[in-house]
Write a structure and sequence with these properties.
Chain lengths: ~240, ~240
């Protein structure tokens, strides 16, 4: 079973505060891109991998999904989801997303928001998602951008006082493997993969690639959160839509 | 018509010397990856975009191609190709690769080695390549890696004497557009595109993505050219194999 960081009380409290921030990267960049890449959900059976407190599941219902299943590794998160986003057409399970074969093979859409970079074996995950999707079904997910996960020392921007130039010190891009980042007062363990590894895992599982996005903020968004101008130097998120042909 | 850098005498001389270097990045990294991604060529009609002095064309014939067409923007290069790699089953044309529609619609394979980053409108190129391929045909190409083309100031590595750490100062990744790099005593003009732009251009043209590679050197290769260890921090090349379904 994967590590259960979201069951750490300090991390959980900080994370929930972050998610309530109306100018967070999730709210302004990642979520709009993910929503735009979803297929029409009316009448569909949707599975949300790493559902957290069920915000995504509730959104998929509002978009007309017939039924939504949310899975998350954290019991804290599943408890919160059942409190905040309970619905007779939604089922929540506390489980490792690598174990989804047990859920059966009847999903139209598998969605996942910023969770797959916690999984060590993405090839195996891609095969599992493929197996539980109906023919023609979609896998739409966001993850931390490979440029964000690449450095072994954690992503630390450099600002050169002399030239007034900012840059991102990239290293170890082509060294996939575990990474540890200090975030929200905790050590977060995740896995770095190159672009080609992610895409080849999907292709190897049998998926057809439909669309990619590396979202950047527009002018209004930068006004809301000026730090986001750095996204033009190094994006935070990668989103991929794939289909089981 | 695109700029004709390879017709500059200084650049041309330096470039030819580089290509004769047995431990060049082309020889050790890019070419082996490109060769490995080609479909079987026996009996096939192949088009080489940016064929240079015809080395690739000659190789495709050796792999059994029935006929090879090489196009290059540089008259210097086409003259050299006709001198070095003439063959009754090879035709060379000095032309802009964006004008390939005039060649007709009968290719099984379109290959291109390190040339498409000179093209401003890759969406249009992808559509042109799609149009001249037979159903089931392949487009296999290498380009400078988006991490290589991203910085507006040109790619300059930083070595921190104190920590003994090397990094690549990344910036402007999400700012596609023209870039100028000083290389081989000349100003080289090329175009930066993000990963998602390149892939979405192919998908938008109708291609199915088959495979991606970001080649890195093995231990023996690093022994031959120790500078190549930097490829593990920031790769130089991106290769994509796509198919017209």
């Amino acid at each position: 079973m994967q590590e259960n960081l979201y069951d750490d009380q300090v991390f959980f409290k900080n994370y929930m505060e972050l998610r309530e921030n109306p100018v967070s990267y999730n709210t302004l960049l990642e979520q709009p891109a993910l929503q735009a890449m979803l297929p029409p959900l009316a009448g569909k059976h949707v599975l949300d991998l790493g559902c957290g407190f069920g915000e995504g599941c509730a959104g998929y219902l509002r978009l007309g999904a017939a039924h939504v299943t949310g899975v998350d590794l954290s019991q804290n998160m599943i408890n919160e989801a059942k409190k905040r986003n309970a619905n007779e057409r939604t089922a929540y399970f506390c489980m490792d997303m690598t174990q989804i074969a047990s859920l059966g093979e009847n999903y139209d859409v598998v969605a996942s928001s910023l969770a797959v970079h916690y999984i060590e074996d993405f090839d195996a995950l891609a095969r599992s998602v493929y197996a539980i999707l109906k023919k023609g079904g979609s896998f739409v997910f966001s993850q931390e951008h490979p440029l964000t996960t690449a450095p072994k020392e954690g992503p630390n921007w450099v600002y050169d006082e002399e030239t007034h130039k900012r840059f991102y010190p990239l290293s170890s891009y082509s060294c996939p493997g575990p990474r540890t980042e200090e975030w929200l007062e905790c050590s977060v363990h995740k896995y770095h993969r190159t672009f080609s590894q992610v895409l080849n895992a999907l292709l190897g599982a049998g998926f057809v690639i439909r669309e990619l996005r590396e979202p950047v903020p527009d002018e209004q968004t930068v006004q809301k959160n000026p730090r986001m101008v750095k996204e033009y130097d190094k994006p935070s998120f990668l989103l991929i839509a794939a289909q089981k042909p």
